[in-house]
């Protein structure tokens, strides 16, 4: 189901300002994007697009979350990340004119903002400086990927878990300084898939952190009770 972004209450779109990419856009370009955008609802586990699909535009998460990854023929999932409210995705195919690089699947009931490709290209033609901003969005994500790859190679499991939880709480460095959250929407098996760790290892690490009072596990999410302690633990290991 889709509807015009213009018909959505401002509070629903305020979440977009959580990310400094959208907040930094020139006002006229930002309004032009919103003017052509539509909201789209996804049911839990509903697929938005698959790797190799044609590009259909740019998306942002307003509510819920989107799981981004790929599934091997064996059925094993390689999870790149979980996109949460305030984060944008789909810009790579717009920049290079290629196909979708990964699968995107709703995690729970999800609402998206969608800027269809034809309308996006029209906005880019009218506001050519937006191309540079799209490049910045890709660069932000590339920095996060490089940091995550370094952690996989250099850090032991507990430090990797701590750093990934903190990164997710801070939007992987893509949110405004005051937009960090205390509750991370992620499951233990998803953390394992992102960090190349078994579910048992992740469970043991989280259990230890929980016993120390640093976090609390809940169904489908993790509350970060002491981010400073998690950060100190990760820094000592690094």
Automatic annotation (TrEMBL):
Stretches assigned to the Cyclic nucleotide-binding domain: 21-141
Record InterPro entries: cNMP-bd_dom, cNMP-bd_dom_sf, Env_Response_Regulators, HTH_CRP, RmlC-like_jellyroll, WH-like_DNA-bd_sf, WH_DNA-bd_sf
Pfam families reported for this sequence: cNMP_binding, HTH_Crp_2
Name of the protein in question: Crp/Fnr family transcriptional regulator
HTH crp-type domain sequence ranges: 155-228
Highest taxon of the lineage: Bacteria
Gene3D superfamilies assigned: Jelly Rolls (2.60.120.10), Winged helix-like DNA-binding domain superfamily/Winged helix DNA-binding domain (1.10.10.10)
Parts of the chain that traverse the membrane: none
DNA-binding as UniProt keyword: yes
Keywords: DNA-binding, Transcription, Transcription regulation
